[in-house]
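User: I've been trying to design a sequence by hand for this structure and keep getting stuck. Would you show me what you'd pick, starting by listing the structure so we're on the same page?

Assistant: Good idea, let's start from the same input. This is the structure you sent:
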């Protein structure tokens, strides 16, 4: 799994973005994200376990 969850600079977890990734709906990298690289890792993990797809 991932070592940490994607979150904003203020520490809020990006639940909506994670949900969109898991539901196979289009998503964009939020402007307020602390570390954009974690979204790629999250997408990889979701794809590995049968959820999500690459960003559109």
């Amino acid at each position: 799994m991932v070592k940490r969850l994607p979150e904003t600079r203020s520490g809020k977890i990006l639940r909506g973005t994670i949900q969109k990734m898991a539901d196979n709906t289009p998503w964009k990298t939020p402007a307020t994200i602390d570390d954009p690289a974690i979204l790629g890792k999250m997408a990889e993990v979701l794809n590995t376990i049968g959820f999500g797809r690459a960003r559109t």
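That's my pick for every position. To get oriented when you compare it with your attempt: DSSP finds two helices and no strands in the chain. The two ends are 23 Å apart (CA to CA).
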